[in-house]
User: What shape does this take?
Amino acid sequence: MWADLAAIGKDPSSGGYHRGGWTPTERACTEWFTTQCTTRGLSLESDGLGNLVAWWGSTDVPGVVTGSHLDSVIDGGAFDGPLGVVSALAAVDRLRAEGFVPSVPIGVGAFVEEEGSRFGMPCLGSRVATGVLTADKALGLKDRSGVPLADALSELGIDPAGVGPSPLLERMGTFVELHVEQGRALTAPVGVASAIWPHGRFRFTFTGEANHAGTTLMEDRHDPMLTYAMTALAANKQARLAGARATFGRLSVEPNGTNAVPSQVTAWLDARAATDEVLQSLLSAITRQAVERAERDGTSVEVTPESVSPIVEFPSGLRDRLAAVLDDAPVLPTGAGHDAGVFSDAGIPTAMLFVRNPTGVSHSPAEHAEMDDCLAGVDALAAVLKDLAK
Amino acid sequence: MWADLAAIGKDPSSGGYHRGGWTPTERACTEWFTTQCTTRGLSLESDGLGNLVAWWGSTDVPGVVTGSHLDSVIDGGAFDGPLGVVSALAAVDRLRAEGFVPSVPIGVGAFVEEEGSRFGMPCLGSRVATGVLTADKALGLKDRSGVPLADALSELGIDPAGVGPSPLLERMGTFVELHVEQGRALTAPVGVASAIWPHGRFRFTFTGEANHAGTTLMEDRHDPMLTYAMTALAANKQARLAGARATFGRLSVEPNGTNAVPSQVTAWLDARAATDEVLQSLLSAITRQAVERAERDGTSVEVTPESVSPIVEFPSGLRDRLAAVLDDAPVLPTGAGHDAGVFSDAGIPTAMLFVRNPTGVSHSPAEHAEMDDCLAGVDALAAVLKDLAK
Assistant: This one.
């Protein structure tokens, strides 16, 4: 299965993956998933947005769903997402080979646009499915070319009218997502998630005045690039001080000409911290420094929250049960957002398994997990499913 | 004439102009110019790249050419370029109405892609015409979509084989370019140029390691955005200290995703100073600070000169003659590059007239010149042409 997916959407020069939601490469992964499920005789169901769950066993009663996502960040790694989907199918294969007969159905899920790399909204599929994001808002989201989600769906023959809270979730009694760990915190092959850090995406719009780069005196300028540059350095410093994370990884400059002082710099801050309070005070500290610098530069800065997710604490009973099944596997929080967090917030009993990441590198072509650890992940997931569906 | 051009390539929201070389809007300006010349019975000649000179009078002997360019920076002002072309036509109209009979031909010129906003090379038309840029190099330049100039020309039915040193220049005995001033240094309606500051464009490539924005510890990162941010602030400070100009106005981020630490930031430095020595020491100071910061960030930085133009000192005899004709008009240098600088370097006796810019704003939708000053510019240009062609 890993070999099947290896080539889809891979940039030959960087080695990274490009699988934005509803793009041809992501669709190819979905096609592959569909084939895998039908070949196994699983009963595949889709909701109006394209979230998929393939059932093993009766679909009359709620069951245990496991899975993850097939989309990627821009130039991302091979493991983030697909590892959870492939491991879910492999775990089902394992249980069937053992002759295990589940008492409740087991579903294998693949949820769309988890990374938000195309439409800017992380966990888009699970947010729409749970209803925390309305169909209207979702359909109006635009990609970087200005294409609204509604048009992207229509082009693929998907009727935007069908988008909304997902009937698939009615039978999701429990959800377990296996995922590659994305830091270096996990030293055993497999661990269990305790929580997802609070996470915010904030758009910083720095506005100044375009001008000639050669003739405008330095002291006459209102250059928003300087305000941005100071803010980027401040964000890094404040995150270090707070034991948190702050990243400016996406930027848009107007007019973006070599010989013009920019009129506007738009920069997206990704900020995460162990608690909601620390996240809020981190944002406040960065904003304050941006505003102070803007006064000095004669520019202005506007901060718009694009998405803010409070802390997700996975239910402790389920978490402890998984850890016990896995011989007291380590329990740890993560700074990365996941569909599991959205489902947990929606009241679905949810847990996560992490597979060790030896370098901690993620969202990068260099993302890696050892094959032995991946196989340990399949073992662990199979054991957990067996326990939950016994 | 001003009203004719006002709407072409204007962004209705910003009010700025988008007239990149060989784009439909720039072509529309060229069409307009062609019509203006033929309507006046001027004899229009083009070279293989699309530089144009329209002659009044015999074309057997070298004459006096005046004019400027019709392309714009991205979201630029109305005056930069077109003012020189419109004033040239208006000055010819004025001289004809007066019954002036020139002893040498007078040419009105429009030179392509002066701003370099599409193919990244300022004064592209004049550089190719004079032979300082070879046809091979020019044709291989690519726009931001990756389209080579050769293909852009072919698409318009222009044979790339015809690109090269321009026969038009053989009859350019003298060149006078009228241009809106681009700083606030000129306090009279019209002035005469003494020199063009040395000017360099340098590409700074900051390379780090892509990683997950949520899970990667701040201390584990190799974030090239931080190295860039410090360099942008350093450039500003060093330019202030040197009485020079340094601008980072164009940026490209890879992968440019909100939730990924960038792997690479490419930033273009536009640097100008009063002398070649100051420009060189400015670049050295900025580069040194970039390299020091890169060591701290665990990133690397590579600096590539894309174009470096030494100081242009316009010939003093011609300059003083113009100033005398204009009742001792002020003489001043400029930080902006112009085709006039390229022609002067190629040994063509060249001068420039500046029209006052009350705010000093240029390369911006807010660029402005008062109508009275523009008319004074036409008067001045007519007087200069009359003197040079008497």
